[in-house]
Amino acid sequence: MKETKITYDKEMLFTLLKGHGVDHTERIGPDIAIDYGPDGEIHGIEILYASEHLNLKEKPEVIIENLKPIFSR
User: Fold this and answer.
1) How many CB atoms within 10 Å of residue 20?
2) 26: Cβ–Cβ under 8 A, 6 or more apart, which residues?
3) Structural domain includes residue 59
4) pTM flag (> 0.70)
5) What integer is the mean pLDDT of 54-60?
6) What is the pLDDT of residues 29-55, one digit of tens each?
7) C-alpha span between 55 and 39 (Å, rounded)
């Protein structure tokens, strides 16, 4: 099951797409890193100084769609 978590503050934006661990990390710029899992898929994205790179003045509105329930009755 896919796990998605977004963490944001003015210094960093981190998106966790899968919670299965990181196999290796590739830097695509001085402040941007992509985490790959053992399956070769992207598991996380980190952007340092996110407010500057994304030109954010305030905390952004985050919309998450297609969530699956974590428990059932």
Assistant:
1) 13
2) 33, 34, 36
3) no
4) no
5) 71
6) 899 999 888 888 888 888 888 878 777
7) 33
Which two structure tokens, joined as six digits, stand for 52? 């500057």
| CA distances in angstroms from 49 to 12, 31, 32, 39, 56, listed in the order given | 5, 7, 9, 29, 10
Within 10 angstroms of residue 61's Cβ, the number of other Cβ atoms is 5
Polymer length in residues for the chain = 73
User: Domain of 26?
Assistant: 5-53
The answer to the question of residue 11 being in a domain is yes
Confirm whether 71 is domain-assigned: no
Among the listed residues 1, 7, 19, 3, the one whose alpha carbon sits nearest the alpha carbon of residue 50: 7
> Which residue in this structure is represented by tokens 């500057």?
52
> Looking at the domain assignment, is residue 62 inside a domain?
no
Cβ neighbours of residue 10 closer than 8 Å, sequence gap 6 or more = 50, 51, 56
